[in-house]
Amino acid sequence: MLFKQRCPHTGVVNFFTSTEPLLAAGSIVEWSPSHYVWHCHIADDHRGAARDAARAEAELRRAIFAKGAVRRQQRGSCA
Known about the structure:
Number of helices: 1
Largest sheet: 5 strands, antiparallel
Strand order of the largest sheet: 1-2-3-4-5
């Protein structure tokens, strides 16, 4: 499971996993009103930019899940 938290001072949105809640797995920074930069901290080669925050978050989540740091929760599953 992923959790996100915005820093009130910098505006950076950090993403944390339930298995490592104190170490950010990724982050998103608003570079300009129509430019968001994301970086997956658990994989050096996974970073990018998007025109809106929702797209940046979707791409970052995809990169974090691809590295296997977090398992997707399945509906109807108790595991």
